[in-house]
HotDog ACOT-type domain-containing protein (Rhynocoris fuscipes), 436 residues
Amino acid sequence: MRFPRCFVKNFHTWKLTASGKLKQVSISSDRYFCDKSTSQFTIDDVKSEVMRKMGVAKGYAPEPPDRSPLLKYLPRSQDDLPVRSMKDSFGTALIPLGTNLDLQMKYTTLMGNVRKGRMLEDLDIFAAWISIKHIYDPKNDQEICPYTIVTASVDETSFETWICKVTNDMRISGEVEMVGKSSMEVCVWLESFVEGEWKLYTKSYFTMVARNSTNTASAIVNKLKPNGPVEEAKYLQASERLVKRRTAAKQSLIKSYPEELEQKAIHDKFQATIDLNDPTLKSRILPHNSVWMESTQVSSVIFPHPEDKNAHNTVFGGLLMRHSLELSYIIAINFGKQLPPSLINISDIAFKAPVPIDSVIKMTGMMVHTELNFAQITVYTEVLNVFTSKTFTTNTFHYTYQFQHTLPEVLPLTYQEAMMWLEGRRYFYNSVGRKK
């Protein structure tokens, strides 16, 4: 497989400032682009490579291949594996939208912009490929990877506000920035080729988990040692994100009471809905320029097919991310009456359980919080097993949108909706704070 020997005037990288923070800069390089006579490593090559490493053949098969013979190739200790650096896992691939017209049709919106849902699909599969690149065992000469790589969560997916046009090539890059015993944080970013240089459009942090060959237990991966001040700064920031995620999990409204100021905010919302002409707890009215939260709800149903499965015969996580995002977009348009609203952030996607390919998937979303010209939308993914009739929630997605005008206020009717309002408010302040 040949990698592109292409050239670009500028590309983005990170530089360590005097204050110890990472700043993205544009520097001259011969790093990557567009010698049309040269073979280029593309996102389709990444997908093919992942399937090849997982031992998945092309074509339909009712059952995934038996991977149990690969169990013997897994290491028993991290000390059995060589220590890796971030550059060992770094990879990049082209999404040739500028020249591939078929790809343009797959990625374009009605306005000629790139579909963000397609970006999420590519980010997910690319994070898996980067994880595979990080894992290295010199004692194992097998072509098939003995690991099963799954997406555990996605954190801090942010988008720039400028329009990403489908007629411009895109480049996807990534690297492993922190490692536990079996988990890896993978930073993946997408750039668009605008006016002769690569311009960063979105960046996301994936937590990938290594499982054994049969996906029945965790598996050990190589340790990571930062090499130089830039990698050390990235590693430190990844560690801070891990602490932040653990703190947020402890403070979840499912596990703990709302804070005092949050309780007051909820009661203020309730008092605003009391009918002064009939001041009882039973009677409630909708204030001016407000909507009930339940009135913003929209649902969709997905019936997966074999083309939607991943290498492990479950529904591809990127597919769930794309459908969830597109449902949130419908809610945003329906509520804000503006086309197009700007998606600026996706917060903390957790994959609680794999989705069997023979499931029926229901997605339900609603506007849970508005403030000024911003809106917070939550989408829940539920899975129905048609053979057992059992349902369970596999994912919760949190989206922050920005509009060009002030939005009506969203008000909860029940205590459950009040908690959804509070959770959305937390995610909103967290995402807007990151953008500042």
